[in-house]
Amino acid sequence: MRTLPQVGKVLRTPDARFGQITDFPYTPHYVELGGLRIAYIDEGPRDAAPVLLMHGEPTWSYLYRKMIPVLLAAGHRVLAPDLVGFGRSDKPAGRDDYSYFNHVQWMSAWMEALELQHITLFCQDWGSLIGLRMAAESPQRFDRVVLANGGLPTGTDEIPKAFKIWRAFSRYSPWFPIGRIVKSGCALGLEPHAVAAYDAPFPSRSYRIAARLFPSFVPITPDNPERANNEAAWEVFKRWDKPFLTLFSNRDPVTRGGAKMFQKLVPGAANQPHAITRGAGHFLQEDKGEEVAQAICAFIQGTPTP
Question: Which superfamily does 10-302 belong to?
């Protein structure tokens, strides 16, 4: 039984905040773990192998609304959780309740509670920092991985200037408009209703603690407390012979070029149909969601289940 972190006061976004969202018609499900309610979307046949869609920061499962229909049409079961502090999931009110390690524990416990097996992981942004750790710590649950615009930093590589700017903004700016931040990470922009949907989980600044803190958790220096755990995860992936695909975009100033390390070091990445998603920014799920989902479907179809 996994020991989960203890949290203090917890905030829960009122359901009414999501009432005006008309382009995300999926019923949320909930699991209570460690005093927190974790929300997730679970669509498609329950006896099908799951495709796990891990969102990043500062988004939520709404990010996958363009991809879910394509995956469902191909017959897959699709799960998209909201990280603790985001979307419909509960939001601890104390800054000290949040950490990179805690988020890995929460989402791993969620995965275990649902008894997920034969997972195809798709992860981006913080979805990769957390999702890749989940896969490395429980490799028997995963059949394949698709990584897009993300990574597994250990604090020993050079940090892009764009991320340094974003990290400083998240820490010091008195103005932190979630929807407009997501829009700025999209090459094709966002419609006003989508901007509003990304704002919905955060009725006040007290709900935005996780969104503010996440950039500071990224290991960018060797003394980061999660360096050792990420290095241990890398050792798993250096032996990972199950299918591993990269689908990075060409217009993301933070992660552009990051696919090369995985293609070089992960055995399961050899001879896979890696692709660069053209015309997409950091949030390629928004810019090219249908195209990305089609690539995932083709990858699953073309790779045998271990």
Answer: Alpha/Beta hydrolase fold, catalytic domain (3.40.50.1820)
Residue-range domain boundaries for the chain = 10-302
Catalytic residue IDs: 125, 252, 282
Residue 36 neighbours by CB under 8 Å, 6+ apart: 7, 10, 84, 89, 90, 92, 106
Confidence of residue 222 (pLDDT cuts 50, 70, 90): very high
pLDDT tens per residue across span 51-88 = 999 999 999 999 999 999 999 999 999 999 999 999 99
Tell me which residue of 259, 153, 157, 285 sits closest to 215, measured CA to CA: 153
Number of neighbours of residue 46 by Cβ within 10 angstroms: 7
Q: What is the CA radius of gyration of the chain?
A: 18
Secondary structure (DSSP) of 39-69 = EEEEES-TTSPEEEEE--SS--GGGGTTTHH
For 4, residues 6+ apart whose C-beta sits below 8 A from its C-beta are 33, 34, 105, 106, 109
pTM of structure? 0.97
